[in-house]
């Protein structure tokens, strides 16, 4: 496990949710220019760009990058698990290059980094891979169909308003037999902070507003990828817990990561008494024995392939020649033979 700049990781738990091959479908059509039918717009994208630009201009922008670097390294590990070289790769929502710094030119020959925040790209970490940086929105990728051999994305897609459209855009720019490897925050992220703020507001102000952004449910993630046209999907989840001195340090680092809430229905200001009450509730309900408080970050990891004829296909239903019952009998015979 990689070390972090801020408080050390206390625990990480990976749970494989599902991995299944899907029937090969026709090539995905070009995505529509507008939002998908019925898509909501929960986030203020202009505000998110300002938040990320502000974070990238701080005196020590890398001070709060420990979580992004950790997840970026885990994305790179998944790239290394695929034993092939990718001539051209795309990093969607790259930030300062949290994935690229862990990759090698033997694995990725050329990389294009895309982010909505120009300051993040200007302060990107230099790597050995030839890199081109483009300011663009994750929902509107300015590339032609069948361009990239690999698309990666780390902790960016949870801020897009139209996630199905973003997945279709990624599928559109991938070459056949290309792979998408991504990570985004899950629904249990910062549940300690969310509960503490809600209880404090109920106590002090008689009601509460959302202060932590809404996240996609993991049960929906695989279906969204499948609808976008991806095959041979894998979705799994990690829980990373980081210890902080208190609630105010949690919120300070979230701001430094560019992860402040940008929901349209957010409450712009919290009273001082409410914040102090939330800090006390946080420590009382979740505090560690050493006086620190934990913050849980749930990470969804996803892998999906664009269909190609060379890919393995599931056997037709009913084509099996041996039943599970027969396999159990064989296992029993082998066990008795060993005895």
Write a structural description:
This protein has an eight-stranded mixed sheet with strand order 1-7-8-6-5-2-3-4, with helices on both faces. Helix 4 (163-173) links the parallel strand 5 (148-154) and strand 6 (174-185). It starts with 8 loop residues before the first strand and ends with a helix. Helix content is 32%, strand content 22%. The longest helix has 15 residues, at 66-80. It has 339 residues and is of the alpha/beta class. The protein has helices spanning 45-56, 66-80, 118-122, 163-173, 191-205, 218-227, 247-257, 272-286, 324-338, and strands at 9-20, 89-92, 111-115, 131-135, 148-154, 174-185, 230-244, 293-306. 39% of the residues are buried.
Compact overview of the structure:
With 339 residues, this protein is of the alpha/beta class. It is 32% helix and 22% strand.
Supply the key terms.
disordered N terminus; 339 residues; 22% strand; alpha/beta; eight-stranded mixed beta sheet; 9 helices
Strand content: 15-25%
Rg over CA atoms, rounded to whole Å, is: 22 Å
**What is the share of helical residues?**
25-40%
Give me the side-by-side strand order of the main sheet.
Answer: 1-7-8-6-5-2-3-4
Q: On the 0-100 scale, what is the average pLDDT?
A: 82
Distance between the termini: 41 Å
* Uncertain spans: 1-5, 10-39
Compressed to H and E, one letter per element, the order equals: EHHEEHEEHEHHEHHEH
- Count of individual helical segments: 9
How many DSSP-defined strands? 8
Globular, elongated, flat, extended or rod-shaped: what is the shape? globular
* Largest sheet geometry: 8 strands, mixed
């Amino acid at each position: 496990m990689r070390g972090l700049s801020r408080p050390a990781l206390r625990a990480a738990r990976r749970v494989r949710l599902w991995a299944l091959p899907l029937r090969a479908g026709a090539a995905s059509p070009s995505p529509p220019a507008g939002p998908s039918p019925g898509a909501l717009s929960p986030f203020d994208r202009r505000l998110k760009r300002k938040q990320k630009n502000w974070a990238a201009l701080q005196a020590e922008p890398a001070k709060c990058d420990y979580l992004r670097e950790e997840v970026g390294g885990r994305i790179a590990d998944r790239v290394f698990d695929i034993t092939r070289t990718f001539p051209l790769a795309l990093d969607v929502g790259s930030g300062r290059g949290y994935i690229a710094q862990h990759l090698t030119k033997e694995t990725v020959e050329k990389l294009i980094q895309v982010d909505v925040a120009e300051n993040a790209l200007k302060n990107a970490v230099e790597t050995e891979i030839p890199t081109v940086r483009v300011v663009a929105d994750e929902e509107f990728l300015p590339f032609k169909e069948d361009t990239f051999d690999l698309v990666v994305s780390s902790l960016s897609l949870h801020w897009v308003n139209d996630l199905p459209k973003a997945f279709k855009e990624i599928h559109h720019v991938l070459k056949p037999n290309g792979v998408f490897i991504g990570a985004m925050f899950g629904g249990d992220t910062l549940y300690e902070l969310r509960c503490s703020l809600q209880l404090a507001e109920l106590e002090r102000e008689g009601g509460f507003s959302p202060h932590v952004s809404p996240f996609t449910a993991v049960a929906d993630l695989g279906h969204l990828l499948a609808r976008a046209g991806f095959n041979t999907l894998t979705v799994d989840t990690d829980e990373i817990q980081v210890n902080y001195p208190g609630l105010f340090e949690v919120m300070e680092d979230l701001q430094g990561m560019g992860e402040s809430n940008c929901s349209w229905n957010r409450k712009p200001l919290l009273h001082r008494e409410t914040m102090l009450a939330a800090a006390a509730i946080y420590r009382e309900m979740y505090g560690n024995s050493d006086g620190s408080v934990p913050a849980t970050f749930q990470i969804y990891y996803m892998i999906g392939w664009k269909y190609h004829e060379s890919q393995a296909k599931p056997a037709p239903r009913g084509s099996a020649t041996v039943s599970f019952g027969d396999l159990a009998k064989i296992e029993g015979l082998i066990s008795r033979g060993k005895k």
